[in-house]
TrEMBL record:
Name the record gives this protein: Translation initiation factor eIF2B subunit gamma
Source superkingdom: Eukaryota
Residue ranges with Low complexity bias: 42-63
Protein's job: Acts as a component of the translation initiation factor 2B (eIF2B) complex, which catalyzes the exchange of GDP for GTP on the eukaryotic initiation factor 2 (eIF2) complex gamma subunit. Its guanine nucleotide exchange factor activity is repressed when bound to eIF2 complex phosphorylated on the alpha subunit, thereby limiting the amount of methionyl-initiator methionine tRNA available to the ribosome and consequently global translation is repressed.
Primary location: cytoplasm
GO terms for MF: guanyl-nucleotide exchange factor activity; translation initiation factor activity
Keyword Cytoplasm belongs to the record: yes
A Pfam family the protein falls into: LbH_EIF2B
Length: 517
């Protein structure tokens, strides 16, 4: 969704509790919320687990700080699968005919992080993931796959393996992240700042049509954007305020005492938490032990650390004590003045000492902001799954590890194409698949050993493995899982079809989820 079209958001500064409100209705105008445009990434996907190709992209040059960063304990967290793919663990869902987790593992390998703990919810899913990793990354990575109870959340998963974490710092990556941002760069920033936590932030990706919307035509729609609001210091190194998109309504409130504590804060609504964090191990373990009810890293652990970083810290060397929410006694010169027109909320006398010093019992929450030319997307919805698949065989093809033809597509040599059938740019056909006569494939991924009849049209879709599509079928904006059969003249538009389902002859489905009972 275009950030310019998102819901209006304003910022209100509130007086400290117990104080008389001198100006209780200070509200930041909408045009002071920082937003940036970015180009649209296209995408779609399909396939079953296979060993990932050795990455063909050139190694990114790494800074001295990255090369000298001591090993971390990388931990990958894997959530339950989507509803349309209960037979496949989320980590093994095909993205451009490669399991999703292969993109994370390749990323860690490229940063020389080779001792990895992979945490999977559910015993059977852990068994399948472990079997695939042990065959695909033999002699490349040392991976321990740990099964944890389902539905305990990301924080619960870390709590379950807390005793396995022994390095000074822990790198936590969501198993559904597809990015070209090197974890080593985040780790170097984390160590350089001596932070308690460093979070990777990236530009909000532009998504295609919503799950329930048409992928073409007048009824095309996009989901309303729920913004994530972050507050940064003027150097854009420290995270001072964070509000999740699930908590953002029309107004976002920032207490005056917090602004007084830090002096100046830049508010951003165009950044996404990529679910890649570097934690100080001791700090992380303490929070998990003390806050036993916490289940989410993003919604609970990170906000707690951000709020508590100002607790009992000296303010700008003036002997002022700052509490958890930044309630301070400050000199008159630091009182909140008129709102700056440079997207800031306070005077320019930023108290850098508050965050830059290591004394005073405070800790630091830092950020690594990926440049806008970096790709960063999470496979956390059906729409995102489709988007990422299109991206990886489109504008982000450097992530796939494949070599593309002169027509900017990938057709395995074993594929058979009938007379007058066309496979357009940004498409992929895996081995053993067959197309009949007069077929058209556009911006789609076709998995292995699929049999496709004549006069079939497939657009903006993901077709997984061993799928049978009979004559005259039309598929648009849909995800078709393994072993599905589409009988003659079936039409799918913006649908998800579960594994093993049969779509009957001549049926027409729009914006539906089809699965066996």
């Amino acid at each position: 969704a275009n950030p310019e079209a998102s819901h209006p958001v304003s910022l209100s500064t509130l007086p400290p509790e117990g104080d008389e409100p001198q100006n209780p209705d200070l509200t930041l105008p909408v045009d002071l919320i920082r937003r940036r445009r970015r180009g649209r990434w296209t995408s779609r996907s399909s396939s079953s687990p296979e060993a990932p190709p050795r990455s063909s992209r050139p190694s990114s040059p790494r800074s001295t700080a990255e090369r000298d960063t001591p090993p971390l304990t990388p931990t990958t967290l894997i959530n339950p699968p989507f509803c349309f793919s209960q037979d496949v663990p989320k980590a093994l869902l095909p993205v451009a005919n490669r399991p999703a987790i292969s993109y994370v593992l390749d990323l860690l390998e490229s940063s020389d992080l080779k001792d990895i703990i992979v945490v999977v919810e559910g015993q059977e899913a852990a068994r399948l993931v472990g079997a695939w990793i042990s065959s695909a990354y033999l002699d490349r990575l040392v991976v321990e796959v740990v099964a944890v109870t389902e539905d305990i959340g990301t924080a619960g998963a870390l709590r379950a393996i807390s005793k396995r974490l022994v390095a000074n710092d822990v790198l936590v990556i969501s198993g559904d992240l597809v990015t070209d941002v090197l974890p080593g760069a985040v780790a170097a920033t984390h160590r350089r700042n001596g932070a308690a936590v460093t979070a990777l932030l990236c530009s909000v990706p532009v998504s295609g049509p919503s799950d329930a919307a048409s992928s073409g035509g007048k009824d095309k729609a996009k989901k309303p954007c729920r913004l994530n609001i972050v507050g940064l210091d003027i150097t854009r190194q420290f995270l001072l305020h964070v509000v999740s998109g699930t908590d953002v309504e029309k107004d976002v409130r920032v207490y005056k005492r917090k602004i007084r504590a830090v002096g100046q804060m830049e508010i951003r609504s165009d950044l996404m938490d990529a679910h890649l964090y570097a934690f100080n191990r001791t700090t992380l373990q303490d929070v998990l032990e003390q806050k036993e009810a916490y289940r989410s890293i993003r919604l609970e652990v990170l906000p707690y650390l951000v709020k508590s970083q100002l607790r009992s810290a000296p303010s700008g060397g003036e002997g002022t004590i700052v509490d958890e929410t930044g309630n301070v006694v400050v000199p008159p010169s630091s009182n909140l003045q008129c709102l700056s027109q440079h997207r800031a909320i306070a005077p320019s006398a930023f108290k850098q000492d508050l965050l830059a010093s290591s004394g005073g019992g405070t800790h630091r929450c830092c950020v690594y902001i990926a440049s806008k030319n970096k790709y960063c997307h999470r496979l956390n919805s059906i729409q995102a799954y489709c988007d990422i698949n299109r991206d990886v065989i489109g504008e982000a093809s450097h992530l796939s590890g494949y070599s593309f033809s002169s027509h900017n597509n990938i057709i395995h040599p074993s594929c058979v194409l009938g007379s007058k059938s066309t496979v357009g740019p940004q498409c992929m056909l895996a081995e053993g698949s067959q197309l009949g006569d007069k077929c058209g494939v556009k911006r789609s991924v076709i998995g292995r050993h699929c049999r496709i009849g004549s006069n079939v049209k497939i657009v903006n879709s993901v077709v997984m493995n061993h799928v049978v599509i009979e004559d005259g079928c039309h598929i648009q904006g849909s995800v078709v899982c393994n072993n599905v059969q589409l009988q003659e003249r079936a039409v799918l538009k913006d649908c998800q079809v579960g594994a093993g389902y049969t779509v009957t002859t001549g049926s027409d489905h729009k914006s539906e989820s089809l699965a066996r009972k």
